[in-house]
Design goal:
Two copies of one chain form a homodimer. By secondary structure, the first copy, chain A, is mainly alpha-helical. In chain A, about 70% of the residues lie in helices and about 0% in strands. The longest helix of chain A is centred in the middle third of the chain and has 27 residues. The interface between A and B is large, with 52 and 52 residues. The structure holds a DNA duplex.
DNA sequence: AGGTTTCTGGATTACATGATCCATCTTGGT
DNA sequence: ACCAAGATGGATCATGTAATCCAGAAACCT
């Protein structure tokens, strides 16, 4: 696939990034369908030809946005040490606080796109699937470490727990977005933390 | 609000229902943005004037679809007795099996719409919020009964647990839809069931 | 410096799609 | 039987919006 990626000049790279950044923000605010390429073009201070010079079409731009957002999210995530209960709690507080600050608008920058593109854009769905796999792996890493250190019950399955935690986060963000209230998000994450606490054991 | 709902004749009601049903199916398959009123019109064997006779505009139709889907979902849900661990497990199996049968396509009939309309259609968001409140109340009812019967630890909070369970379901469905694999859904629900089992106590 | 590639501006096109209109038919009440 | 309200058909309109095109400027390489 991706045959000969034309190399970008310094200026070109900057323009491309400006476009992706503008698109990411707009899409997070209003969703893919309600974000027009015209809006992206204006917000990025670019022209139509620039946009279509760097991206084949709108779906290609959306895929670039997904990857960009996934990088950001996972980067933020990895500032926390998810191999301890305290670290998990800090992460939970961070996520809930962030939701509160933004009045729960937009939901998850990539999760919100999921339902919108999954059934109509196979390629975007694939990019999303890969992104969520990376994300889950990042959470799992913490739990695996916890497990290896003997702080987690031997029969606990870090993969399953990580998947469930990510699902709780996604569902919590979605409900919070719809209710405009962080309570469901807090409840979902607290439930997972309680379960993990239950599986904790002193070394 | 809703000033003088024009009364519908038997035939009119049937047409209206045909339109909502067709719209519900198409929207579940492809999302709101990718479902055109023309498609709905054809799938329902109706004409444009019929569609706009029963609904002010597309958003109004979408709101009707949300309410219809919420009724269906909650109706299905209430065939299970969520006041026992066995009943919860049956419900879990039903949901996971249904996802498997449909190859995880479409996700949740109302959850998938959430991200798509929440930021752009305040009225639809309100309808969704009310629907999820009803849904949560339905789950909570089971847990409250469990609690009242003394089968749940006194310090357990049925409201928080119900919210977390609904979030786990939504997040699980979303991840399953994106991955085309029911595993995340199963993991999310199993985690909640394990937590609830932990909070169980013999009478 | 020359030539090739990359980048940019902006006008223009093509079309999908939500919505309207009006004439006509059907239904239901009294 | 009659009339008002409701229901229907289908053509038509209006416009938002993705995508194209070409001319020309800037950047890069040797």
């Amino acid at each position: 696939m991706a045959p000969v990626r034309p190399r970008l000049t310094r200026k070109g790279e900057a323009t491309r990034r400006r476009i992706v950044d503008a698109a990411a923000e707009l899409i997070h605010e209003k969703g893919v369908a309600h974000t027009t390429v015209e809006e992206v073009r204006d917000a990025a201070n670019a022209s139509s030809s620039q946009l279509y010079h760097y991206f084949d079409d709108k779906p290609a731009l959306v895929r670039a946005v997904i990857e960009r957002q996934a990088d950001t999210i996972i980067g933020n995530q990895e500032r926390f040490d998810l191999s301890t209960l305290d670290g998990l709690r800090e992460w939970r507080d961070f996520v809930v606080e962030h939701a509160r600050e933004t009045d729960c608008r937009g939901g998850c920058p990539i999760g919100s796109l999921g339902a919108e593109v999954a059934e109509t854009e196979p390629e975007a769905r694939t990019v999303l699937a890969a992104s969520f796999n990376r994300w889950e792996a990042s959470i799992r890493a913490g739990l695996l470490k916890m497990h290896a250190l003997g702080r987690l019950a031997p029969d606990a399955d870090p993969h399953e727990l990580a998947l469930a935690t990510l699902a709780a986060l996604q569902g919590g963000l979605l409900l919070a977005q719809i209710q405009r209230d962080p309570e469901p998000l807090a409840a979902a994450l607290d439930a997972m933390l309680k379960l993990i606490a239950t599986l904790q054991q002193q070394a």
